[in-house]
Amino acid sequence: MKWLQYGFMILFHPIEIFYLIKRDRKNIPWMVSLFTLAIAVLIKTLTVYTVNYTVASKSAEQANALWELGMVVVPLLLWVVASYALMTIMGGESTFKETLTISTYSLVPYILFTPLVIIISQVLSTSEAGFFNTLQNLLIVWMLILLFVGFKESNGLGFGAAIWRAFLSLIVMVLIAATFLLIFALGSQIVIFVQELTSEINYYLR
């Protein structure tokens, strides 16, 4: 129940909640972060299939559930891994579990207010798509502010140092993503080569 209260209170007193998370970080259940992330993924999927077609960026027929899941999970986990790894090297104070918890709690505005945005979309026309996009962007900005404040407070950084290290974390995110894409591309080429080689061998053995 305490962790649920933290989720609601982060909307009004984020710095205080981040302090409490830091204080209680040894007792944070992993399920808190996993549950919050799962709800965010559910809300993202719900958005794609229920937003009024007049303001939707894509139709439900064009949507890919796996892609929508990745749009929430991948950037968040990349941030958690990159920021924790960097701050471990640079003397940060946050643990991995604490970083994950704070990052997933930053999704709370999106989780709580996106259903309201979906309802509002039902009465909007095509000409009001800009208003709908503005509402979505405001939620994104709110989440990013919480993410930054949580990063700053959990690692005991000043504002300038937090800006610089958050920027470095973004660079690390890009490097991690590029590495995985390179591995995936090389792996795909190897699989294709093995398949072609197997086909050639089978052809000559006939």
The helix fraction, in percent, is over 70%
Helix/strand/pairing class, anyone?
mainly alpha
Can you write the helix and strand succession as a string? Answer: HHHHHHHH
Rg, rounded, reads: 21 Å
Number of helices: 8
Distance between the termini: 68 Å
User: What average pLDDT do the residues reach?
Assistant: 86
Number of domains: 1
So what's the overall shape?
A: globular
List how many beta strands DSSP finds: 0
Query: Uncertain regions: pLDDT < 50 for 5+ in a row?
Result: none
Summarize the SSE layout with pairings.
Elements lengths: L1 H8 L4 H10 L6 H21 L14 H25 L6 H10 L2 H14 L7 H26 L4 H47 L1
Helix pairs in contact: 2-7, 3-4, 3-5, 3-6, 4-5, 4-8, 5-7, 6-7
Short description:
Helices cover 78% and strands 0% of the residues. The chain is an all-alpha fold and 206 residues long.
Task: Describe the 3D structure.
It is built from 8 helices and no strands. It has helices at residues 2-9, 14-23, 30-50, 65-89, 96-105, 108-121, 129-154, 159-205. The longest helix is centred in the C-terminal third of the chain and has 47 residues, at 159-205. The chain has one domain (2-205). The mean pLDDT is 86. With 206 residues, it is mainly alpha-helical. Helix 3 (30-50) runs antiparallel to helix 4 and helix 5 runs antiparallel to helix 7.
